[in-house]
Specification:
The structure holds two protein chains of two kinds. Chain A is mainly α. Chain A has two helices and no strands. The radius of gyration of chain A is 14 Å and the shape is flat. Chain B is 76% helix and 0% strand. Chain B has helices spanning 2-15, 30-60, 74-99, 103-130, 138-170, 182-207. The chains are: A mainly alpha, B mainly alpha.
Chain lengths: 59, 208
């Protein structure tokens, strides 16, 4: 795993895009829908992180 | 015998001064490792504040959030968010420039980042002045000012780091090699972290 400015910048873009989608959904619908989307993203992110970590362990 | 001992002592002293050198990872330099560990501790600090926020919002004061008649300026804060995210792009541009040996791009990127960060902080302070509630107004006021103030303090620290990096850039420091621009790389990582934290603060406090 790389840890440098370019890698962290990618995370700014990813978190920014996720935040923008939550803002859009919340403003178009209700805060509860936005909160559920946030929860779904956090769970999906956790699953991805776990799978990535297991893959790293195998290698 | 005695002179031989002295000679060996001098020889030893020529090769080594002070304590033994600390071990260093071959994967990551110590400056980057330092900022990584610092950011991990910062994530825990923000995590504690977010835990307080959600506790107050969900458990303690669930009737209305924010309590009547308070209202948060979503549009102004959204504009401020755009400004801060732009500053991540400018510092990335500064670093990409110095990686290619473009000193003018480095200076331009650093100055633009500093100005965008200062604008963010100015708008934040202006927002505080016009909000119409203080940290004494309910648990909402306390946690709102705590979270946004904590973030504002981090922006201020980031601006200080950027000031040093900018002054050094104008003095001709930094070069294209990775070890020659760590003085920009490390504040850049910190600045990105501050941006990511603000996106989370904005979405949870202002939008949801």
């Amino acid at each position: 795993m790389k840890f440098n400015e370019a890698a962290v910048f990618k995370w700014v873009v990813i978190v920014g895009a996720a935040g923008a989608s939550i803002v859009a959904v919340t403003l178009l619908t209700r805060p509860l829908v936005g909160a559920l989307l946030l929860l779904a993203m956090v769970i999906a992110g956790g699953v991805c992180a776990y799978r990535w970590w297991m893959l790293q362990k195998r290698h | 015998m005695e002179s031989a001992t002295v000679a060996v002592g001098h020889d030893h002293a020529d090769h080594h001064h002070g304590p033994p050198e600390a071990n260093q990872s071959s994967r990551i330099d110590r400056q980057t490792l330092g900022i990584l560990l610092f950011i991990v501790s910062e994530v825990m600090l923000f995590g504690a504040f977010f835990a307080s926020y959600f506790f107050l919002r969900v458990v303690v004061d669930p009737a209305s959030w924010p309590p009547e008649p308070f209202e948060l300026p979503k549009a102004v804060a959204g504009m401020n968010t755009a400004i801060l995210i732009s500053s991540s792009f400018t510092i990335h541009y500064a670093l990409e420039s110095i990686r290619r040996g473009n000193r003018a791009g480095l200076k331009l990127g650093l100055v633009a980042t500093w100005l965008l960060g200062a604008t963010f902080l100015f708008i934040q302070v202006n927002e505080y002045v016009h909000l119409g509630f203080s940290a004494r107004d309910f648990s909402f006021g306390s946690i709102f000012y705590s979270l946004t103030g904590l973030h504002g303090a981090h922006v201020f620290v980031g601006l200080m780091l950027l000031s040093f990096a900018t002054i050094r850039a104008f003095r001709g420091h930094f070069g294209p090699k990775a070890e020659d621009h760590l003085g920009v790389e490390v504040p850049g990582i910190y600045w990105h972290f501050v941006d990511i934290m603000w996106i989370i603060v904005y979405v949870t406090v202002y939008i949801l």
